[in-house]
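Fig. S4 source data, part A: sequence.
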Amino acid sequence: MIELFTLRFLINLFFTFLVIRFIYYPQYKNKDFVFTFFLFNSILFVLCFLLAEADLKFGFAFGLFAMFSMFRYRTVTVPIGEMGYFFLVVTLGIINSIASLENYPMLILANSLLVGVTFLLGRFLTLTHENFQVLTYENLALVKPDQKALLIQDLIDKTGQPIHRVQVVKVDYQRGVAQLKAYYYSKDNETFSADAEA
């Protein structure tokens, strides 16, 4: 029993280390989450392994998964990208502790598949985000539909962002201002929802 626990824990720790140190950390550089990921993974592994003898198995595992997923709504907001890594290390802990596999090559293959897919998506899936800024705009003459090109160029000049489209949210004719959403592409998610004068 001790040998089985040790072997599975080492397999779990090895693949979790690969994910955190060589895939997650080079991209996010957040030491706080590194500690949290290792801790959650280890706690789940030990908990699931010790309770695997009780006939709970899948229901127990998915219950834990659901419970930890709810932490997103009860604690400090975690960026969605880092939540993906959180779910991965939780999944690794569960798989390596309660998978009823005596075939260790299959267990290693399953771990390798998860880690490999994560690596490939993180390295090669380089999509750009469409971000936006909410702006309070004072030149109502350019808010007209036939002035869209001039409006976009004026916003580019004022914000310095490569804006490609604009949405008029509302126009206040009494104050002489309009609220706009100005959209631009970026590799990073930089959406600003605070009003800015333009």
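Fig. S4 source data, part B ends here. The chain has seven helices and four strands.
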